[in-house]
């Protein structure tokens, strides 16, 4: 399929699809006329890339783990394939996620307490 169809099927602008290619996340074939040609599996790949980006992973992190992804939400890296650099990258990201969760939880609790203080009792 061509880039326009992939864009329509995934909801991802063609500009971003080209960026993913530049970042070595997508690998379309090129026709003689230079047009990109994507396999059917590119739809799932783009959806997975979007999900990983939405969760806060960088394109660098995604590039490091993409070879081990077998489907959305499934990760099967053989232990010998995970380099110390990749493990450190992922551990750092886990720590950043936890910090964000902690901050969001504090903010939720503060907002809930504020609403409880200013809202009339529903009884």
TrEMBL record:
<dbReference type="GO" id="GO:0003677">
    <property type="term" value="F:DNA binding"/>
</dbReference>
<keyword id="KW-0238">DNA-binding</keyword>
<feature type="domain" description="HTH merR-type">
    <location>
        <begin position="1"/>
        <end position="68"/>
    </location>
</feature>
<protein>
    <submittedName>
        <fullName>MerR family transcriptional regulator</fullName>
    </submittedName>
</protein>
<dbReference type="InterPro" id="IPR047057">
    <property type="entry name" value="MerR_fam"/>
</dbReference>
<dbReference type="InterPro" id="IPR000551">
    <property type="entry name" value="MerR-type_HTH_dom"/>
</dbReference>
<dbReference type="Pfam" id="PF13411">
    <property type="entry name" value="MerR_1"/>
</dbReference>
<dbReference type="GO" id="GO:0003700">
    <property type="term" value="F:DNA-binding transcription factor activity"/>
</dbReference>
<dbReference type="InterPro" id="IPR009061">
    <property type="entry name" value="DNA-bd_dom_put_sf"/>
</dbReference>
């Amino acid at each position: 399929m061509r880039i326009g169809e992939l864009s329509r099927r995934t909801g991802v602008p063609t500009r971003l699809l080209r960026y993913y290619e530049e970042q070595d996340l997508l690998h379309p074939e090129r026709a003689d006329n230079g047009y990109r040609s994507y396999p059917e599996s590119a739809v799932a790949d783009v959806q997975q890339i979007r999900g990983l980006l939405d969760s806060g992973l960088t394109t660098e992190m995604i590039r490091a783990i993409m070879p081990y992804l077998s489907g959305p939400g499934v990760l099967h890296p053989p232990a010998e394939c995970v380099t110390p650099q990749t493990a450190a990258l992922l551990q750092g990201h886990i720590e950043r996620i936890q910090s964000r969760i902690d901050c969001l939880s504090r903010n939720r609790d503060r907002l809930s307490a504020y609403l409880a203080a200013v809202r009339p009792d529903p009884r």
